[in-house]
Amino acid sequence: MHGEYKVPGGKLVVLDVEVDQTDSDAILRDVQLSGDFFLEPDSALTRMRDALESAPADMSAAQAAQRVSEALQPSDNLLGITPEGVGIALRRALGKALSWDDIDFDVIHGPVVPPMVNVAMDETLAQDVAEGRRKPFMRIWEWDDPAVVIGSFQSYANELWQDGIDKYGITVCRRITGGGAMFMEAGNCVTYSLVVPTALVDGLSFAQSYEFLDQWVMEALEKVGVKARYVPLNDIASEEGKIGGAAQKRFANGYMVHHVTMSYDIDAAKMLEVIRIGKEKIHDKGTRSAVKRVDPMRSQTGMAREDIIDVFLGHFRDKYHATDGEITQHDIEIAENRCRTKFATHEWTYRLP
Q1: Which of 215, 115, 127, 233 shows the shortest CA–CA distance to 175?
Q2: What is the pTM of this model?
Q3: Is the pLDDT confidence value at 282 over 70?
Q4: What sequence ranges are listed for the domain BPL/LPL catalytic (predicted)?
Q5: Could you read off the pLDDT of 312-348 as tens digits, one per residue?
Q6: What is the mean pLDDT of residues 16-33?
């Protein structure tokens, strides 16, 4: 059995192993640990390997990492390899965790629908994937109406200025993921949703999974000239300030949605009439009292939003060998019905008043 894991910012960890099945237990044997990492002294590799030999085959990645950690000495130097990385490589070798290459992806752009329908599709399409009606996918949203999409756990009154909502005719949608409010007008940002099996992030902490799932978009941003970095827990930033943020929802059916919104060209003055943003957040988003727009991607790339999206789609398609998928009219109708029964209801929108 063979498993591989690329440590973020580190090196490739490779683990080969066999499993012996007894009457009551399954144990690991013939563990081999390799990769392009660095460590000193050489004996550390033997101790790490031996820590897994004869261990229970059903242990979690965290339990495997703990075994490896306990085998290390204070004087050991590990570069590019971590105990957590060894644990994930083991789980992949045993078929308990997935890698990107194990997943057959679709890549989808659009269609243009109201923001609330996009919010509903994060739930309805994820259900389709879990029930085998659709492949895992990355979908870039398009929308036609202004909206504020608030996090699942945000208070409506604490986050929004009702006068601004009424003044600009803005729809308020509450999404299924946590995180902060998104100010959305047609063409002012780039939002994508990624629906994958939770086994893809097996062994990763919640914090680690955010950066792991967004590595592809960090590479795509570099292609369009944005020097981005990940800021834990869930922010993407550049030298000019925050670009966007991510959020997740993990379902009991073994799948999850991970989505990101990145600012392209936002009317900051209007946004501040609609969303209650404290001084710390204003500074974090790169706005000042004299600035009228938040435009990190437009100003840093000089590219049209459509061209940036084309790069994103192409990079995901090439990196993960994804095929082009689509949203059908039937998909939209299901999402519209979910809006009527859940997302557009007073009970959902004001569940935290």
Answers
A1: 115
A2: 0.87
A3: no
A4: 132-324
A5: 999 999 999 999 999 999 999 999 999 999 999 999 9
A6: 93
Q: Per the structure block, which two tokens stand in for 150? A: 């608030």
CA dist 30 and 95 (Å) reads 17
CA dist 277 and 127 (Å) reads 34
pLDDT of 158-196, one tens digit each?
999 999 999 999 999 999 999 999 999 999 999 999 999
Interval 244-262 mean pLDDT: 96
Helical residues (DSSP H) of 19-167, grouped into ranges: 43-52, 61-71, 83-93, 115-130, 156-159, 162-167
Structure tokens that stand for 242 in this block: 């925050």
Q: 42 vs 46, 78, 80, CA distance in Å? A: 7, 11, 15
What residue type is 291 in one-letter code? V
Q: Is residue 283 over pLDDT 50?
A: no
Q: What is the pLDDT of residues 197-235, one digit of tens each?
A: 999 999 999 999 999 999 999 999 999 999 999 999 899
pLDDT of residue 289: 36
Number of helices and strands in the chain (H, E): 14, 18
Q: Is 80 exceeded by the pLDDT of residue 59? A: yes
Closest CA to 271 of 287, 249, 247: 287
* Amino acid identity, position 245: G
> By CB neighbour count within 10 A (0-12 exposed, 13-18 middle, 19+ buried), where does 91 fall?
buried
102-137 residues labelled b (16+ CB within 10 A) or e (exposed): ebebbbbbebebbbbbbbbbbbbbbbbbbeeebebb
Q: Are 260 and 214 in contact (CB under 8 A)?
A: yes
What residues have CB less than 8 Å from 9, skipping those under 6 apart? none
Domains of the chain: 2-94 (3.30.390.50), 101-350 (3.30.930.10)
